[in-house]
Amino acid sequence: MSVSDTVGTVAVIAPYDPGDAYPLVYARHGWRTVAVVPEHRLRPPAYRNATVATGYTGTVVHRGVRQTVKALRALGVSAVVAGGAGGVEPAERIAWQLGLPGADPASSPLRYDRGAQAARLSRLGIPALRGVRTTSPAAAVAWARACPLPGYLLAPVTAGSPVEPVECADAPQIIAAWQAVRDAAVRYSGSADLVLTERPPSRRCTVRTVTRPGPDGRPEHVVTALRAHGRTGHGRPDRTARLLAHRTARVLDALGVVCGPATTRFALGADDEPLLVDSLAAGAASPLSLFPGQSMTEWPPPATARPADVPPTMTRNARILELRAPCEEPSVPPRTARLMAPRPAGTVAEVEITP
């Protein structure tokens, strides 16, 4: 791809996964990609020796915002996106200094910190998992005793962390699991903060979105993929999909997401009420698996470009991007929301979303 064929250049901040798909995905839309890699002292321990994936047209070592901004300006960067949770804060600071679309750097934790997200949603009356954010196992146990529940979930505070949460039944199990989860959290995120929440319902959904300015200048959240884990919808996948699209828009507005990709996870409570588990304002390094033979655009072009045509607006600021197989099965209505046949709990079902 020649320079004359490109739409622009996007900087991907802290793309630690050597198998990430950013260069390939953006190249499909005519964008070149530049990897911005923090120097070793700024990386979490697990990524000190991480290498950059192939496919990037250039690499910039991030030692400070001023130097990085100067280098990216010289490369003609026209969009900035976080490569993961560790890239959210520097990406927003860099975009701010470059004068590019981006969220307010002063509120960056809202885009990756589970504790900050739950507190924000609680103040706005948006349902989320109840819990506590702390570095102290004693404080976590005190909260659990003050809020007796059937079970708890202990996890790193950073959304998108590869550290698996641990289910705990009571205070002794919380104390027993604490040190191992804390050590793993420090290794992969650099933060010793953990969150203890109520154990989420078994029915869960992952929603992927791209946010761009709408016709009125306000953020518009385009749902690009939805993945359902376990049984969902009580036989009404269209209702669940629409409810999730609407709730995702409210959550992203509350968290200050104004442009770019995000991955938001929900647990489905009574009557499919979505409860926020966490949200990460960064693209997913690996694409969701789809039905056999199906294809999709994981992320439309980033913040400064308009994605391809999308169906009519469903809510003020939530749209759903149609995911359609190249050869639609005759027995399946082409413009409906559907869930694959019911499966036992614990399996994964994919949802095709259309307006």
Which characteristics define this entry?
4-stranded parallel sheet; globular; alpha/beta; 7 helices; 15 strands; 25% helix; disordered C terminus; 355 residues
What does it look like?
There is one protein chain. By secondary structure, this protein is α/β, with parallel strands linked by helices. The chain is built from seven helices and 15 strands. The protein has helices at 22-27, 65-74, 85-98, 114-124, 137-146, 171-189, 237-254; strands at residues 8-13, 31-38, 58-62, 77-82, 131-134, 152-156, 166-168, 194-198, 204-213, 219-229, 260-268, 274-280, 318-320, 338-339, 348-352. Strands 9, 10, 11, 12, 13, 14 and 15 form a seven-stranded mixed sheet that branches. A hairpin with a 5-residue loop joins strand 9 and strand 10. Helix 2 (65-74) packs across helix 3 (85-98) and helix 5 crosses helix 6 (171-189). The two termini are 35 Å apart.
Overall 3D shape: globular
Portion of residues within helices: 10-25%
Average pLDDT works out at: 80
In angstroms, what is the radius of gyration? 20 Å
The secondary-structure element order is EHEEHEHHEHEEHEEEHEEEEE
Number of strands: 15
Q: Which runs of at least 5 residues are low in confidence (pLDDT < 50)? A: 285-355
What summary fits the major beta sheet? 7 strands, mixed
> Based on helices, strands and strand pairing, what is the structural class?
alpha/beta
Distance between the termini: 35 Å
Strand content: 25-35%
What is the number of helices?
Answer: 7
Summarize the structure.
With 355 residues, the protein is α/β, with parallel strands linked by helices.
